[in-house]
Amino acid sequence: MPRISSGFVDETSTLARYSPSIVLSWFDQKAMAIVYTLLALVIKNVRVGPTLPAFVSQKNWKFIQDNYGWMPIGDVDADLRAMLKN
């Protein structure tokens, strides 16, 4: 890995460790680039919403849930309590 990108991964991984949670919304096409980046960096426990993206099959979604701990957003109050608990 080139020096610049490995530094980015190190800094991003450090940031992810100290971030309580990530919520990803599907309001534009750039979300796909964000998804690939988060998966490549092995960022876990991301909440996805307001609906699950149509371009992700059920089989792929199950894989992402099982291996990365991603989940759909639910009740706002419950989600916030769960995110702040970490």
The figure for the number of domains is 1
Strand order of the largest sheet: 1-2-3
* Average residue-wise pLDDT: 75
In the CATH scheme, the class would be Alpha Beta
| Cα separation of the termini | 31 Å
Please give the number of β-strands. Answer: 3
Annotation field: number of helices: 4
Structural class of the secondary structure composition?
A: mainly alpha
Quick description:
By secondary structure, the chain is mostly helical. It has helices at residues 3-18, 31-40, 58-68, 76-85; strands spanning 22-25, 46-49, 71-72. The chain has a 3-stranded parallel beta sheet with strand order 1-2-3, covered by helices on one side.
What is the secondary structure topology, with strand pairs?
Blueprint: H1 3-18, E1 22-25, H2 31-40, E2 46-49, H3 58-68, E3 71-72, H4 76-85
Parallel strand pairs: 1-2, 2-3
Structural account:
By secondary structure, this protein is mainly α. The chain has one domain: 3-Layer(aba) Sandwich (Rossmann fold), CATH 3.40.50. 55% of the residues lie in helices and 12% in strands. It has four helices and three strands. It has helices at 3-18, 31-40, 58-68, 76-85; strands spanning 22-25, 46-49, 71-72. A three-stranded parallel β-sheet has the order 1-2-3, with helices on one face. The longest helix has 16 residues, at 3-18. It is globular and about 30 Å long. The chain starts with a helix and ends with a helix. Mean pLDDT is 75; it is low at 1-6.
